[in-house]
Design brief:
Largest sheet: 2 strands, antiparallel
Bound molecules: fe (ii) ion
CATH superfamily: Ribonucleotide Reductase, subunit A
Number of helices: 22
CATH class: Mainly Alpha
Shape: globular
Strand content: under 5%
Radius of gyration: 23 Å
Order of helices and strands: HHHHHHHHHHHHHHHHHEEHHHHH
Oligomer: single chain
Number of domains: 1
Distance between the termini: 85 Å
Length: 494
């Protein structure tokens, strides 16, 4: 007779044993589990609500896969990709190049949960997480492979993380830390709870909605399918936080505060420009700020409150950054466009500008005036003056340009000396993150550190582009060939 799942489930996921030949601390070293011997018992309380069996998991995943593949073949047959807007396509290049290998890194993180997590229930769930992430990486590769014949930029789904492109280095720096190097507890707070449960909604919900509106049904469908898995395995963060609040609440507060800021900065470059500038105006659903407030900030505040944690000390500065950071990163990435592997859309035609003004009341004062300079140069046929000759200095925590975290007017330096080396930061918050655990961040050399150190030859922009692996067929340029600037020619003449 077949037993009901409830009759056998607890036995299967609580499978554990007592070591006799080795010490428990050798089999589950604190370095990887994140849990010292003194609190080992507390982790027995770790629980998850999903109650998933392998049989059900395979059945459901198989259905999801058939759904994705059916849409894929229909869309390929209909030739949908060739009709897509150039601005929207840039968002998919950016996403594939910076996300595909993060999915693959997540496989390694989940496999660490399978082996080293401090509860057998968590180790059991890690198996499903590992299969989820394998599926995500494979889906991104399949999608990109299909489109390779239309654009070599899709090669960057696989290639990006094997290059030294500066934006990719920033992404890699963050995920190497929270996925590949962190212990289970730290990884589940930073990656599962903060990134997967929170920030990936911007990529997988907001971008999926924009992609659908742009007619990119295939990509939208792929993103949504991935999101259904995230919603499940991202839950491991909650029971982890619950136990940590019993054993070490101060560690929980610091870990989440650091992870929240670092994620904010990363998504300001990964998704902010895609939502507020690349997506065609009539297809935008929400601004990046609106989406952040509704999906990320509200969620995060609720989690902090529910578990008895405080808002991060930097909350006011964070809100200020939410108004500005992604605009700074957008104008920066557009200006340094030869250093990108996608073609950014400036997104500042007159109509678009009106939308930006309405969504961000301080936009004109901070960023509009800088775009006016660029527009003038474009319309005076001085494109060379809109292109970079040097590299920006970079933050030693986020690896993003200094001056890109707050408004144009917040440029006071944030620096410290650690073990005789000078470190620079994009904000007081990034400096604070570094100070919480300097050994974790010290030693890494930013792109500019490498440039100054003589690793990049010849030491000019051309040498830097070659070092980044940027070949002419993928190198960034304005998505619409500057056509948007014509808006302003007519106005000036009239
Ligand atoms: Fe994933
Ligand atoms: Fe995930």
């Amino acid at each position: 007779m077949l037993l009901n799942r409830d009759d056998w489930y607890d036995t299967s996921r609580d499978l554990d044993w007592t070591f006799t030949y080795v010490e428990a601390s050798d089999a589950f070293p604190a370095r990887w589990s994140g849990v010292g011997a003194e609190s080992a018992d507390a982790w027995q309380a770790w629980d998850e609500p999903f109650r998933v069996s392998y049989r059900d998991y395979v059945r459901i995943q198989r259905e999801k896969e058939s759904g994705v593949k059916a849409v894929r073949s229909a869309m390929m047959r209909a030739g949908v990709y060739e009709k897509l807007d150039a601005g929207h396509v840039a968002a998919s290049h950016l996403h594939m190049g910076t996300t595909c290998m993060v999915e693959q890194m997540a496989v390694t993180m989940q496999s660490r949960f399978c082996r080293f997590a401090p509860s057998p229930r968590w180790r059991n769930l890690g198996v499903f997480g590992m299969l989820d992430e394998t599926r995500h990486a494979q889906l991104d590769l399949l999608f990109s492979h299909d489109l390779l014949k239309f654009d070599p930029r899709f090669d960057w789904a696989q290639k990006a993380f094997h290059t030294n492109e500066w934006g990719v280095l920033a992404v890699k720096n963050f995920f190497d830390d929270i996925m590949l190097s962190a212990d289970c507890v730290e990884a589940s707070l930073a990656a599962s709870l903060t990134v997967e449960h929170g920030f990936t909604n911007i990529q997988f919900v907001a971008l999926a909605a924009d992609a659908m509106a742009a007619g990119d049904v295939n990509w939208s469908n792929l993103l949504s399918s991935i999101q259904t898995d995230e919603a499940r395995h991202a839950q491991v963060g909650f029971p982890t936080l619950a136990v940590l609040m019993e054993t070490d609440p101060a560690r929980a507060q610091t870990s989440l505060d650091v992870a929240f800021w670092r994620s904010t900065r990363l998504f300001q470059v990964l998704t902010g420009p895609a939502m507020d500038y690349y997506t065609p105006l009539d297809q935008r659903k929400m601004s990046f700020k609106e989406f952040m407030l509704e999906w990320i900030v509200n969620h995060h505040e609720r989690i902090l409150e529910d578990y008895g944690l405080k808002k991060p000390w930097y909350w006011d500065q964070f809100m200020h950054s939410l108004e500005n950071g992604h605009h700074a990163l957008h104008i920066g990435t557009w200006y340094w466009r030869p250093t990108l592997f996608w073609k950014p859309n400036a997104g500042v035609s007159k109509d678009e500008r009106e939308w930006l003004r309405e969504k961000y009341p301080t936009w004109e004062d901070n960023w509009g005036v800088m775009w006016d300079e660029i527009i003038k140069n474009v319309n005076d046929d001085r494109i060379q003056d809109t292109l970079p000759v040097t590299l920006p200095s970079l933050c030693n925590l986020t690896q993003l340009p200094i001056g890109s975290a707050m408004s144009r007017h917040d440029l006071e330096p944030h620096q410290l000396v650690y073990k005789e080396r000078l470190y620079s930061f994009d904000s007081e918050i990034s400096q604070w993150c570094f100070e919480q655990d300097p050994e974790r961040y010290a030693g890494h050399r930013s792109f500019v550190d490498r440039f100054i150190g003589g690793e990049i030859l010849p030491p000019d922009l051309g040498g830097a582009l070659a070092y980044m692996g940027l070949t002419p067929d993928v190198m960034g340029d304005d998505a619409y060939g500057y056509a948007w600037a014509k808006d302003y020619v007519t106005a000036e003449a009239g």
